[in-house]
Specification:
504 residues; alpha/beta; Rossmann fold; GMP Synthetase, Chain A, domain 3; 4-stranded parallel beta sheet; 15 helices
Length: 504
């Protein structure tokens, strides 16, 4: 039988299935045996509801142990897992359901009525619910299923997940991740970062995101280790659990918040062997302050929704500030000019990546897929980078005006499109401005046609339509936007004008 992603993960479970996989802040524990049984029951329920190999299951639920078991149940049944940010609003959900055509949607209990209405409009047959206390129809339905479910055989090229990433045109794209894409990255990182059975991962990331689900949870399950599973980043809970943990993965915002108090000391983390930072650029000041305060050096790595991780500073060896390290052992990276010509060491261009971790394309977007790949299989990331003489990759900028706020990608075009449709708006420009907590904050600059527009009204309107992390923190009104000789809006000027907006 072909080894599916689930079977490969399951083979790495410890021999003693009573070993703890998850401990919650309340002290409740879930074993590897629980993961095995619950994933079997959920797989049984989903198939009983009509889901067949290759069908999509869309999931928008809060973080919980059962949410992880739902993921395992999906891949156990050969289904394609489609995680959605819990902040997504109705319009966004409608697009995802229409685009991905899932057979089942699992949502938060309090949004069931709203999601059912959207599902009906988009032709989605089944809606199940899952709450943070194992409440909802998913787990109640799973209770009646068998504790044993034979994993569905899948080939390496079969889809395991579709991960939506915001598009530069405002239209989200579904990155298709195969069984091998996810397995290759997980097995490489588990070895590279030295995970072992006695590790304890402090997990405060969301699990609708590559970082929290495919990187963090996979590394734990492949090593048979344990994780403290926090619903979200809570500084007090993190400080309380650090003495009992050995590894932490976080976005730069986590480390900025930890450093904000004097109670974050070297003594608190005497047991820690590794802190990993990613999903957003790590400021050199944070890197330096962290080392000075704790004696530990943050390990920064680089990845994208479309490929998981591609580079990492070493576990053993020099971790260089302002770099994301060399390519992973099974990954090739290069820097090219816009025509695809490979540039020399230290030359700045667009970073391109090839490897078994790189996605196979965008769901139902063959033209977009063709644009993003070179003929020799390299994926064009759009990030501006250089590779130094040691092979370390330096991310020096981002193409396409991407804003990264709190570790989440925000594409200005999506917000600009909404603002430009509002009455009284001539045009708008959305930019990212340095923010001490979020890394970058979203800011909108608007040319109004009338005086009745207000900052509060603009923000309220966007908030009702888009996830909160995309909503501008501030809105400014101007007579005209700065443009170059070709008429293109010069966002670099706007960023310079507002760069001190959130300065301490």
């Amino acid at each position: 039988m072909t080894n599916s992603l689930f079977m490969r993960i399951r083979d790495r479970f410890p021999a003693d299935l009573s070993s703890v996989l998850i401990e919650t802040p309340s002290g409740k524990t879930y074993s590897y045996g629980d993961a095995d049984v619950y994933s079997a029951r959920i797989a049984g329920l989903l198939t009983a509801k009509g889901a067949q190999k290759g069908d999509r299951v869309a999931v928008q639920v809060d973080k919980s142990p059962e949410a992880l078991f739902l993921y395992l149940g999906c891949i156990r049944a050969g289904l394609v897992y489609l995680p959605l940010n819990t902040a997504y609003q109705a319009g966004e959900l409608s697009y995802f359901m229409g685009n991905a055509s899932p057979v089942i949607v699992v949502c938060q209990p309090h949004r069931e009525e709203e999601v059912r209405s959207i599902a009906k409009e988009q032709g989605v047959q089944k809606v199940l619910t899952l709450g943070t206390q194992a409440d909802g129809t998913l787990m109640s339905g799973a209770e009646g299923q068998s504790d044993d479910f034979t994993p569905v055989a899948c080939a390496d090229e079969d889809l395991a997940a579709i991960l939506y990433t915001s598009g530069t045109t405002g239209k989200p794209k579904g990155a298709m991740m195969t069984q091998m894409n996810l397995w290759s990255n997980a097995s490489t990182l588990e070895k590279l970062w030295g995970f072992r059975g006695d590790d304890v991962l402090l997990h405060a990331l969301p699990i609708f995101h590559t970082h929290g689900l495919f990187i963090a949870c996979h590394c734990v399950m492949l090593s048979g280790s344990k994780m403290f599973f926090l619903p979200k980043f809570d500084r007090d809970q993190v400080l309380d659990l650090l003495p009992r943990s050995t590894v932490m993965m976080g976005v730069p915002t986590f480390y900025v918040r930890l450093l904000a108090g004097d109670d974050f000391t070297a003594d608190v983390m005497a047991n820690m062997r590794l802190f990993i930072s990613g999903s957003a650029p790590l400021l050199p000041e944070t890197f330096t302050a962290f080392e000075k305060r704790t004696g530990k050096v943050l390990l920064e790595r680089y990845g994208m929704t479309e490929m998981g991780m591609a580079t990492s500073n070493p576990l053993v060896g020099e971790r260089i500030v302002h770099t994301v390290g060399p390519a992973l052992p099974d990954v090739d990276v290069r820097v090219c000019d816009n025509d695809g010509n490979i540039l020399a060491t230290e030359e700045v261009g667009v970073l391109e990546v090839r490897g078994p971790n790189v996605f196979i394309g965008y769901w139902q977007m063959p033209e977009k897929t063709a644009e993003e790949f070179r003929g020799d299989g390299f994926f064009i990331t759009g990030d501006i980078a250089k590779i130094d003489g040691k092979g370390y990759v330096h991310i020096v900028g981002r193409a396409k005006d991407l804003v990264i706020s709190g570790g989440f990608n925000v594409y200005p075009k999506e917000i600009e499109t909404l603002i430009d449709k509002m009455d009284g708006v001539v045009e708008s420009a959305v930019i990212g401005v340095n923010h001490p907590d979020f890394g970058e904050a979203v800011v909108a600059v608007i040319v109004p046609s009338a005086d009745q527009l207000s900052e509060d009204d603009i923000i309220a309107s966007i908030k009702s339509q888009l996830a909160n992390f995309k909503v501008p923190k501030r809105v400014f009104f101007v007579d005209e936007l700065p443009r170059n000789a070709m008429g293109k809006v010069q966002k670099n000027i706007l960023r310079e004008q507002h760069k001190a907006l959130f300065a301490n």
